[in-house]
Amino acid sequence: MSRADLLPQEIAIELKKKKKKFIVKSIIKTAIFYLLGFGFLLLSEHKSESFDRYSEPYLFWFLCILVLVLPVFLFNIYILVTRRSFKGKVVGMKNQVRMDLSECGMFLRANAARIKYKDVCIVSFETEKGGTRRIAFENEEAVLIRDYCKIGDEISYTEFSKIPLKYHGVYEKKFCVCCGNTQRGEDTCCAKCKVPFYDEKANRDELGLWQEDFKI
Ligand SMILES: [Zn+2]
């Protein structure tokens, strides 16, 4: 039996748009990267007397493969495969404090005094297909996920969102499914993602799905 789709249509449409935008941007960035990367490689081969595909075949083809695969990691394209939608169950939650290197970059030592730490919660899920998925939630997302999910909760995760949605229970606070921001004041949309806040109670009413009659 397939489970009902928990995500309100309005948010589902936004997430699809987000995915489309990500793919278009990735294609453009990759095209530019290939143009510059291969252009530079072929130009170096053409201009240099000691470096070409015949005298340095290993180096040449290694650099070619490097240019070919680098965009997958540089532009986070791997998330298209690693963060696919799934349905499953929360089986573990682990808290960690990690260094936040986003502002230090390569000058870690010089900036040692400025190192900040981030609050991380790693949640493990057992998928309905029998696999395991792990998602790391940071700072505000981590605070929300600890409050929202408990071990044993059955959830549905949609690609390009951040917070998985629960099949049971009703959460009082409204939050952004994309980034984990909780609603402040009377705002109806997340200022960061431009996605309507998820209102679990209203969604349950709309779907006519309540804990007792909503068996998975
Ligand atoms: Zn958001």
Task: State the gist of this model.
The chain is α+β, with helices and mostly antiparallel strands. It is built from five helices and five strands.
How would you describe this structure to a colleague?
There is one protein chain. The protein is α+β, with helices and mostly antiparallel strands. It has 2 domains: 72 residues; 131 residues. Strands 3-2-1-4-5 form a 5-stranded antiparallel beta sheet, covered by helices on one side. Strand 2 and strand 3 form a beta hairpin. Helix 1 runs antiparallel to helix 2. The longest helix has 39 residues. The N and C termini lie close together (8 Å). The model has no long low-confidence stretch (mean pLDDT 87). The chain binds zinc ion (ZN). Zinc ion binds next to loops.
Question: Which features does this protein show?
Answer:
5-stranded antiparallel sheet, alpha+beta, binds zinc ion, elongated, 2 domains, single chain, 216 residues
Mean pLDDT score? 87
Shape: elongated
Strand tally is 5
H/E topology pattern: HHHEEEHEEH
Could you list the spans in which at least 5 consecutive residues all have pLDDT below 50? none
- Percent of residues in helices: 25-40%
Number of domains: 2
The number of helical segments is 5
The value of Rg in angstroms is 22 Å
Structural class category: alpha+beta
Arrangement of strands in the largest sheet: 3-2-1-4-5
